[in-house]
Amino acid sequence: PGERRLAGRHIVVTAGPTHEPIDTVRYIANRSSGRQGFAIARALAAQGARVTLVAGPVALATPAGVARIDVETALQMRDAVNAAMPADCAVMVAAVADWRSADPATNKLKKDIGAPDLTLVANPDILAELAVHPNRPQLLIGFAAETDRVVEHAVAKRQRKQADWIVANDVSGDVMGGEENAVHLVTPEGVETWARARKDAIARRLADRIADALG
Ligand code: C5P
């Protein structure tokens, strides 16, 4: 109690959605309040870590002692994450949009010209890229929001993205945007099912585990 177990550590956290412009007023995005990521940033800072929080567009206050970098798009988020390296640990909580418009309009598209033909291109996978980055953090943690076969998908995701841990988020219920979360922690040693809890309690528990792992 009162111990700052992450003093001297630098940890990068991504949080929130990304917004991918279609034109100057419309965008593509995933649903994400940013609450779990912000809670994790707060819990890590409370343990004494130097925290860089790369945040997509969300309406949340910056946790005390956290250095926040606001971004809009996945490409900006990738640049901000890379610029924040090196780090001892990265916790990638952001719900990054999988696609962006290949050619966003630089004005507002007029409705009367009909529905636009959008060409979408894939965004980079920031987590998977960081896993093979020359400055790869010692402990790389991804999130996986799933509605079915949650653990099975998370185990596969851990291997595919070469993350160390995946926090598998069961979003089949009402956790989206809410105060609570239901997660499983997938590590090389196996799968732990954590009791459903408030997002700040999940964040503190994860911060403790990160401190254990970084030693
Ligand atoms: O593949 P999926 O989107 O389910 O993977 C989720 C994990 O990957 C999260 O940790 C998320 O932050 C990260 N991710 C990413 N860049 C993307 C897509 C997902 O960093 N373009």
Automatic annotation (TrEMBL):
Reactions performed catalytically: (R)-4'-phosphopantothenate + L-cysteine + CTP = N-[(R)-4-phosphopantothenoyl]-L-cysteine + CMP + diphosphate + H(+); N-[(R)-4-phosphopantothenoyl]-L-cysteine + H(+) = (R)-4'-phosphopantetheine + CO2
Stretch list, region Phosphopantothenate--cysteine ligase: 11-215
Cofactor binding notes: Binds 1 FMN per subunit.
UniProt-annotated binding residues for CTP: D98, K108, P124, D125, I126, L127, F143, K157, K161
UniProt keyword tRNA-binding present: no
Domain DNA/pantothenate metabolism flavoprotein C-terminal: 6-212
Residue ranges of coiled coil: none
Keyword Zinc: no
Protein EC: 4.1.1.36, 6.3.2.5
Pathway annotation: Cofactor biosynthesis; coenzyme A biosynthesis; CoA from (R)-pantothenate: step 3/5; Cofactor biosynthesis; coenzyme A biosynthesis; CoA from (R)-pantothenate: step 2/5
Keyword terms of this UniProt record: Decarboxylase, Flavoprotein, FMN, Ligase, Lyase, Magnesium, Metal-binding, Multifunctional enzyme
Gene Ontology molecular function: phosphopantothenate--cysteine ligase activity; phosphopantothenoylcysteine decarboxylase activity
Cofactor(s) the protein requires to work: FMN; Mg(2+)
Family: In the N-terminal section; belongs to the HFCD (homo-oligomeric flavin containing Cys decarboxylase) superfamily.
Function: Catalyzes two sequential steps in the biosynthesis of coenzyme A. In the first step cysteine is conjugated to 4'-phosphopantothenate to form 4-phosphopantothenoylcysteine. In the second step the latter compound is decarboxylated to form 4'-phosphopantotheine.
Protein name per the record: Coenzyme A biosynthesis bifunctional protein CoaBC
Organism of derivation: Sphingomonas japonica
Gene name tied to this protein: coaBC
Portion of the full-length sequence here: 178 to 392 of 392
